[in-house]
């Protein structure tokens, strides 16, 4: 059964919330109606209900995600002890290397970024907390994909892959070849495949008892990526993946 045919009010609410969530600015009602293709009366009724539940809130002449939805969503990283385990380990890495660390989960063809520790010298990333990227376009995504079998990847991804930059992998066969190296080394790498000027190293953490498939990554401007930096980050990101996995297991 298609989920959007199952419970109309819930599935339509999800459509509206997704439209609001995708914007960095308050979203007007007319835009929601245009993008959702839902009847005017349905949109107004659902907006009123979602606002009363504090899932969304008014901001000027539009709507933004509400505090209640943030409260509910934050449970995702509290469960399994993800948030506390990640922060305990990632903060040490940031203190030592002054580079960003991110935690991501696999969700079908995308990686969802669920936690991040920023250094003093913060860098501009396309992967904010809660954002999604095509799973094949980042080191973090490759680390997650490498935990799957080739047959699972073939079932998951099309032959031709969308690109984010001119350096993104465009063919599934090329991606699978790359993932064979990731499986052998335990380390995934991308150079400007999702963001120009940035390199990324990532390592697979594991699958939690609640079936969250996790990986951890660090990103660094290519201008700072000398041989010593490369060696340190490659070694450390693999080590903290192991430490996070052990800490999550110990707290369950």
UniProtKB/TrEMBL annotation:
InterPro entries associated with the record: GAF-like_dom_sf, HTH_MetabolicPath_Reg, Tscrpt_reg_IclR_C, Tscrpt_reg_IclR_N, WH-like_DNA-bd_sf, WH_DNA-bd_sf
Gene3D superfamilies: 3.30.450.40, Winged helix-like DNA-binding domain superfamily/Winged helix DNA-binding domain (1.10.10.10)
Residues covered by the HTH iclR-type domain: 7-67
Domain IclR-ED: 68-250
One Pfam match: IclR_C
A GO MF label: DNA binding
Identification of the protein by name: Pectin degradation repressor protein KdgR
Organism field: Methylobacterium frigidaeris
Lineage: Bacteria, Pseudomonadati, Pseudomonadota, Alphaproteobacteria, Hyphomicrobiales
Gene behind the chain: kdgR
């Amino acid at each position: 059964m298609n989920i959007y045919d199952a419970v109309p009010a819930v599935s339509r609410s999800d459509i509206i919330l997704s439209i609001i969530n995708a914007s960095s600015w308050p979203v007007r009602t007319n835009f929601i109606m245009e993008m959702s293709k839902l009847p005017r009366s349905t949109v107004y009724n659902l907006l009123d209900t979602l606002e009363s539940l504090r899932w969304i809130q008014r901001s000027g002449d539009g709507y933004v995600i509400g505090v209640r939805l943030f409260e509910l969503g934050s449970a995702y990283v509290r469960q399994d002890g993800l948030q506390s385990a990640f922060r305990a380990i990632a903060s040490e890495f940031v203190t030592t290397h002054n580079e960003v660390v991110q935690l991501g989960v696999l969700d079908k063809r995308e990686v969802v970024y669920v936690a991040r520790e920023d250094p003093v010298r913060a860098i501009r990333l396309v992967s904010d907390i809660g954002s999604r990227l095509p799973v094949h376009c980042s080191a973090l995504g490759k680390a997650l994909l490498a935990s799957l079998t080739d047959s699972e990847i073939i079932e998951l991804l099309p032959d031709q892959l969308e690109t984010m930059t001119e350096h993104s992998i465009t063919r599934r066969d090329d991606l699978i070849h790359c993932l064979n190296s990731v499986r052998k080394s335990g380390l995934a790498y991308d150079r400007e495949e999702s963001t120009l000027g940035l390199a990324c190293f990532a390592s697979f953490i594991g699958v939690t008892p609640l079936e969250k498939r996790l990986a951890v990554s660090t990103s660094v401007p290519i201008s700072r990526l000398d041989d010593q930096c490369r060696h340190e980050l490659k070694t450390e990101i693999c080590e903290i993946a192991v430490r996070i996995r052990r800490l999550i297991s110990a707290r369950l």
